[in-house]
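Self-study notes.
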Amino acid sequence: MKSIKRILTLIAIGFITFGAVEVKAQCAACAAAVESNHKSGATATKGLNHGIVYLLAAPYLAVVAVGLIWYKKYRRKDVKLDIPHERLNLN
């Protein structure tokens, strides 16, 4: 079971790493500045796009890290459920 989980994890990481699509994420002011900069021949557009995507991904990675730590810390392994077989009196 662990080997299957490990293989699936590696496949998922491979898809995330090698299946990445270039995105264009810019605000209006950044887009105007980069557009005028690009017309003049500068190559700052790719760097700015990568920086914006990096800053966009950071909060999501932080939430995933906190969730993973929380899950690992608070999950219980040996939980015994003692459910008595008694009649339930609703009066």
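Second protein, same conventions, sequence then structure:
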Amino acid sequence: MMHSSFRDSVMPEIATLEPYKQFSILFIFLLISGTGCSDLSEYDTMQIRTAMNDSLLVTTESWDVEMILMQEGNTKLLIEGSYAINYQSEERKFSRIEGPVYVQIFDSTGALETEAWSKRAMYLENEAEFELIDSVRVHTRDDGYLYSQYLKWSQYTDRITSPSFVTIITKTDSISGRGFDGLTDLSYYIIQEPTGDFVVD
């Protein structure tokens, strides 16, 4: 489990961004010097090139980053990464986060519901979506597991989806396939092209 070791000793810089519906987002940047980011993937490069084609491109960089998504006054999602670069233009805003990336998702009572890990992530502000990329691993409080190379979480629907190959392991069965769509706690999900045992709703 990745947690920042600098919280008690460093005063974070806090910025509030425009809310989506009942959501508000707090970016907490722990300004600690660290190693540079890794090489860009093809997907990341496409995102950046698209942003660079827009006018008034602004970029900011931060190290040891913590992002908190608030919903109705409660923490809904927390994501940590070692490095982030934020792109902003007149047309779009997004952030690329380098890992190891650690994510916590909370239920409506504020209890921890799901944890996830990946090598990097993207936050697409216009779409209100987080994307976990490369070596994605999910663990729910009911000991459900999901493994994939790509996973997307939507603020609007509070669901996770993936067109990529996924493997799900629960206490009762295991299944793999493509075309995943489900709840964040894996209590309900659909796989469009399944292999393995069977889908448990």
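Instructor comment on the second fold: The first helix runs from residue 42 to 53.
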